[in-house]
Amino acid sequence: MKSNLFLIWLLFFTAQAYAQSSGPTQKDDARSSAQSAKDLVPLPSVKSLTPSQVSGKKLFVQRCSVCHLPALPSYSTYGPVLSGDFIISLGDTFVYEQIMRGSSRMPGYQYTLTSTEIDQIIGYLKTLQLTKKD
User: Fold this and answer.
1) What is the dihedral of CA 97, 102, 103, 105, to 10 degrees?
2) Cβ atoms of residues 45 and 54 within 8 Å
């Protein structure tokens, strides 16, 4: 029984150490270094959005926010922190293709999202305003 507990503890400790030492960095992708997790992107109220942007917000929160928004201000994100200015600088075509095809770090959604849904996400992302954390 003691050896089983030791093995469980050892596996847990090893997994924790591995997760801390081998996590992705923002330097892995040149475009992902545009903003850091110290930047905050408050989500706009549904009241200030068009119906299309509301649909985009719902899709973004369901499928994208886990990688593109920090859970807490002190956390880092797996993908770049997204804001309207960042999306505009990349251009709609690039963002559309990135969502469709994905990359080595991001899944493609060509089989699960329609063109309209991707356009709704892009429209919503343009409403996000970046604020700096003190």
Assistant:
1) 140
2) no
Matching residue, tokens 């997790």: 37
CATH topology of domain 26-132: Cytochrome Bc1 Complex; Chain D, domain 2 (1.10.760)
**Tens of pLDDT, residues 41-69:** 677 888 889 999 999 999 999 999 889 88
